[in-house]
Amino acid sequence: MTATVTESNVYAVPGSSWEIKATPSDGGSRVEMTWIRKFRPNARGLIFGTAFRLIGNRIFKKYGREIVENLEKVEAGT
Q1: What is the pLDDT of residues 39-72, one digit of tens each?
Q2: Labelling 18: which of 2, 56, 71, 75 has CA 20 to 30 A away?
């Protein structure tokens, strides 16, 4: 599944998106997420772009785990 950013005050439009792929693996699933983040060439985009380069991996790892946990809850019907 691919989601494309259509409106944002920080991300560049077009050009920003994220994709989630799930494939079967050893009785479960392997989930791969890819974010393409391009920032607008304005002050806010510069600030967020710099912040994401410095601490973005930590933020998105946590966010990615939350997405997977929510998908698992949906699958389990809770």
Answers
A1: 888 898 899 889 888 988 887 788 878 878 888 8
A2: 75
Helix/strand/coil (H/E/C) assignment for every residue in 2-41? EEECCCCCCECCCCCEEEEEEEEECCEEEEEEEEECCECC
pLDDT at 27 over 80: yes
Q: Name the token pair of 69.
A: 């946990």
Token duo for residue 68: 């997977």
Rounded CA gap, 5 and 36, in Å?
10
Contact 33, 57 (CB under 8 A): no
Q: Where along the chain do its domains lie?
A: 2-76
Helix H or strand E segment including 69: helix 43-76
